[in-house]
Amino acid sequence: MNKGSIVLALLFVFASCQSTSKKTIVKDEKTMLTKEQIKIQQTVADNIVIAHRGMPYHCPESTLPSYILAREIGADYLEADIQRTKDGVLVVFHDDDLKRTTNVVSVFPNRANEPISSFTLEELQKLDVGSWFNTADPERSRTTYEGLKIITLVGLIDIARQGINKPGLYLETKKANQYPGIEKDLFDVLTQSDWLASNNHNKCNLILQTFEKSSLPLLNQYFPETPKLFLLWKDDIPNFDSTAFKTWVTFGAENGAQFIGPSINGEITNYHDLMEPWMIEIYQQAGLRIHAYTFDTPKDLDLYANKMNGCFTNRADLLLDFRDIAHPEIDSTLERFGY
Ligand code: G3P
Ligand code: CA
Predict the structure, then answer these.
(1) Contact 74, 136 (CB under 8 A)
(2) Which of 24, 36, 110, 150 has its CA 20 to 30 A from that of 60?
(3) Residues lining ligand 1, judged by CB closer than 6 Å?
(4) Which residue, 193, 188, 150, 195, is CA-closest to 54?
(5) How far is the CA of 293 from the centre of ligand 1 (A)?
(6) The domain 35-325 belongs to what CATH superfamily?
(7) pLDDT greater than 50 at residue 272
(8) Is 94 in the active site?
(9) Predicted pLDDT at 3
């Protein structure tokens, strides 16, 4: 055998190994999903209670007491928006800037309009993320909320791990296009903290979500076996009509999502209603299960409960009541944890 033939033979063996190591994609006959996606979908229970930013009706959103309370009352998942500091730390925070829920105006008066990504973790930790709540909602205010700090993803993982209930995490790559590489950062933190390895496939401990078309395939690349939800916002869909809507939803199904996250026209939020019957038909044809957002009132639960498989709620206690699931009382639980 001459040198050329040996090289060719080696290349052939290498190519064969590559093709056999690749997973064969088998489509489900009835939906747009693959068999693998269906298998992953089934690891998430039906009717899950997703504590949206923790318990923001009772506590400042996305803070330690907010998530401790959600865990203690028995929410299935702690929902959190993940962003990245200037020095590369993943933190839990919803808004683009710090004005609404912190005292950034008094601590950094010249930087109040800057995005969270322009602050280091040390700078962010100088901010009070609790006092605004006491002003906004005097009825539920507590002096112990004053001086609360922004929490990191690692901090959120610690909260989820403690206590008797073991809620899963439902993490959103928020404004992912502002944070190139955040999907890998998320993978690294969840791996280093052993959160991925400790997954129990009977009660999946992690679901990922994004509004962004650019982020979903990247989440799928780093987390192929983790359930993923594609969030919907009507104004993101150009030239909105039924065809454009179906194409948008199909993108989710074809890029790794097993779940779809439509908004509801809730009594408090007044978002677009993306749960009209023709829209639900599109989700069902695609094979996507529905986790809708955001629920604040029993009336909305009544309206939508039978049309979805899980819901993001600012009042997990109301949803548990709605399902006749007993839970600890709010005030005494907060007091037990020093709030
Ligand atoms: O993640 C579900 C819901 O949280 C999406 O809306 O703006 O509250 O993150 P938003
Ligand atoms: Ca969110």
Answers:
(1) no
(2) 110
(3) 52, 79, 81, 94, 172, 209, 231, 261, 293-294, 312
(4) 150
(5) 7
(6) Phosphatidylinositol (PI) phosphodiesterase (3.20.20.190)
(7) yes
(8) yes
(9) 56
